[in-house]
Amino acid sequence: MKRNIVIAAVTAAALIGGGTATALATTGDDDPGTTRQSDVRASGGDDADDRAGDDADDRDDSRDDDGGDDRDDAARASSAKVTAAEAVAAALREAPGTAVSAELDDEDGDDGDRERAVWEVDVLAGDGTWHSVRIDPGTGKVLGSETDDEDDTDEVRAALKGSSVDAAEAAKAAAGRGIVTSVELDEDGYYGDGKAAWEVETVSSGKGEQDWRVDLRTGKVTADRSHHSGSDDAGSDHSDDSDDSGSDDD
Fold first, then answer.
1. Region 231-239: what's the mean pLDDT?
2. Residue 218 contacts by C-beta under 8 Å, 6 or more apart in sequence?
3. C-alpha to C-alpha distance for 6 and 190, rounded to whole angstroms
4. Helix, strand, coil abundance in the chain, percent, nearest 5
5. CA-CA to 44 of 20 to 30 Å: which in 2, 117, 151, 166?
């Protein structure tokens, strides 16, 4: 009986203190003179510490996810001396044809474990061959060119038929909104409505990453909300976010 009382008291103390206690309890009348150890552990303290640490890690990860990508894009764009339009021009000198997209992206460096920024320009040649040309964003030098296999050649040509604004001009038209980090032909249009346009992405201080659409015939720049499916008016006309391209051309 006394043994049980001692163990119960130690257990209560351990639970209140949030730690671990060890009690030496006599065996009572059954086996006099012998003792045994009873370990009483209260897991609440350790679990609370673990949960607090996990919550802190989750908050750090959330902050990284929210702003990390935008900061990386802005840093990469601000370090580029060669604009999207200049990268397109350099790529077309290497592989004549029609530039369909240009994107400022990262690739592995020469040492294999360090990334560097590079312009990647996709060009559709007159014979139907696709070329992917890499341009140094610091010097405009061609770093390499590869032949690609694409299955949307007919769709791209159909979308560009009768157009008067090319990829370089689309990039210039949107340059007033921020630093252009990519320009790409969207041959399907808003939600596949068939109205092709140039999609241009910019980054700017205070506004982060923004998407724009540039009309293939007029060069008019409109805010692109097609990526935000939650918006009820994603496909509607947003006249307050657009203007004529003439005010933005270099």
1. 40
2. 165, 244, 245
3. 76
4. 35, 30, 35
5. 2
Query: How would you class 37 by CB atoms within 10 Å of its CB: exposed for 0-12, middle for 13-18, buried for 19 or more?
Result: exposed
pLDDT at 237 over 60: no
120 pLDDT more than 80: yes
Mean pLDDT of 98-107: 92
Closest listed residue to residue 21, CA positions, set 50, 42, 49, 35: 42
C-alpha–C-alpha distance, residues 55 and 165, integer Å:
51
Which residues are CB-contacts of 243 (< 8 A; sequence separation ≥ 6)?
Answer: 220, 221
Render pLDDT for 125-159 as a digit per residue (tens, 0 to 9): 999 999 999 999 999 999 999 998 888 899 999 99
Q: How far apart (Å, rounded) are the C-alpha atoms in residues 121 and 84?
A: 9
Tokens of 93: 């000198």
Q: Which of 118, 197, 129, 194 is nearest to 160 (CA)?
A: 197
Residue 120's beta-bridge partner residues? Answer: 103, 134
144: left (phi over 0), alpha (psi -120 to 50) or beta: left
- Note the pLDDT of residue 69: 58
Within 13 A of 195's CA, how many CA atoms are on the CB side?
11
Quick check: 26 pLDDT over 90?
A: no
